[in-house]
């Protein structure tokens, strides 16, 4: 009873924060002609309800793809249809074909915010709670509740979902997949991840760790026995899940190809989501940061950009994928989710600033193992989206939720006391140096100093971005500074996570044998 009372308080607090943030502004409010992501979600409801399935992804007189054309997988479209069906019962004007474009009203805002709230309550929040109770490190009820509260109060996801406007379903399904794999429910985990991937194609960031972990398990069981049976079952589950999701579009090949063209518009070039011409640049990945100094888009063709980003991304994730396949373990799998997603964010094609959430949520899953580095990363990830949050009028929500999250982590995990090589899981790496790095003795103090310097720098840049006018000669100075500072942080985090993974020694000693 005590367990559920603590968790009930945790959930109520998380819901209260979400609802409070949702009372504020949203993406594109009152900004015609395109408005923002709020209007995009409303428009998809309009399209999916009023048009036949075969027209959802095609440019027609009733479906102008240049005006927030549907560019997510079928599960997003089905979800939009369900929301539209309910909206039609309340007020048909909300989804009326053509005439509802740009529709804004307080009742409609309440409806749209409620749909996000319900999605969070039904999918994402239960996955977080069950995950925290499944952890061995959170064996007590209080520890599990604290861990869940820290994850649920991560400001980045709250601000984007309930402020900017976005649904948490793909990340929620991915969390359910991780939870299922932690209980060795591999088929359910595979199905849950297929749902995540069929809701948003950006879940490809997590696909290789899922693939390598499950393939490694099959190898361990033996591909001539139980391993082959498991591999066949997993393959069948994946094919069946995709077949069900894509069934309405399988009437002819042109339907399938059009959906794929909408999901992967490679002709737009490397910087399609960087918005490097107007509005000002604000993406904290390597290509957009480098383009401040080297105009990549002017010297490299779009096809070469695609090949370059693919090569760099592939090389950056290869060591982690090999290690995970050879030594499959749940702990290594969670770290691999972080490392691979971060590599995709930094190096892959057509990244959006919100994509950092695909890294942040896996980081939340290991906050109990490396609370110091996880807290630091989650603060930086929220800071990296600052230009977008300021554009949406979410400054106050950003400041309050970020400070509250930092205070909670300081109080719950005592993060400033957990900076030793062992706490940061760098002990195997330090031992491999065999005394050649005497600076490891002062490592805790150095890391704490870097953290405090980082927090101070983010605080100053946040204040300047919000309150100070930029120099006339450098109107984009603050968004650029946020992007470059964040990118440098992410590069250092990528090195850190790869060192932890590649020098990992716990798997062979503590991970239960897969039989």
From TrEMBL:
Family indicated by similarity: Belongs to the ALG6/ALG8 glucosyltransferase family.
Keyword Zinc part of the UniProt annotation: no
Pathway per the UniProt entry: Protein modification; protein glycosylation
A GO CC annotation given for this chain: endoplasmic reticulum membrane
Organism: Bucorvus abyssinicus (Northern ground-hornbill)
Function field: Dolichyl pyrophosphate Man9GlcNAc2 alpha-1,3-glucosyltransferase that operates in the biosynthetic pathway of dolichol-linked oligosaccharides, the glycan precursors employed in protein asparagine (N)-glycosylation. The assembly of dolichol-linked oligosaccharides begins on the cytosolic side of the endoplasmic reticulum membrane and finishes in its lumen. The sequential addition of sugars to dolichol pyrophosphate produces dolichol-linked oligosaccharides containing fourteen sugars, including two GlcNAcs, nine mannoses and three glucoses.
The enzyme's E.C. designation: 2.4.1.-
Top-level taxonomy: Eukaryota, Metazoa, Chordata, Craniata, Vertebrata
UniProt-recorded name of the protein: Alpha-1,3-glucosyltransferase
Catalysed reactions listed for this entry: an alpha-D-Man-(1->2)-alpha-D-Man-(1->2)-alpha-D-Man-(1->3)-[alpha-D-Man-(1->2)-alpha-D-Man-(1->3)-[alpha-D-Man-(1->2)-alpha-D-Man-(1->6)]-alpha-D-Man-(1->6)]-beta-D-Man-(1->4)-beta-D-GlcNAc-(1->4)-alpha-D-GlcNAc-diphospho-di-trans,poly-cis-dolichol + a di-trans,poly-cis-dolichyl beta-D-glucosyl phosphate = an alpha-D-Glc-(1->3)-alpha-D-Man-(1->2)-alpha-D-Man-(1->2)-alpha-D-Man-(1->3)-[alpha-D-Man-(1->2)-alpha-D-Man-(1->3)-[alpha-D-Man-(1->2)-alpha-D-Man-(1->6)]-alpha-D-Man-(1->6)]-beta-D-Man-(1->4)-beta-D-GlcNAc-(1->4)-alpha-D-GlcNAc-diphospho-di-trans,poly-cis-dolichol + a di-trans,poly-cis-dolichyl phosphate + H(+)
Mode of membrane association: Multi-pass membrane protein
Annotated localization: Endoplasmic reticulum membrane
Transmembrane stretches, start-end: 110-133, 145-167, 173-197, 227-249, 332-349, 356-383, 395-416, 450-468, 480-503
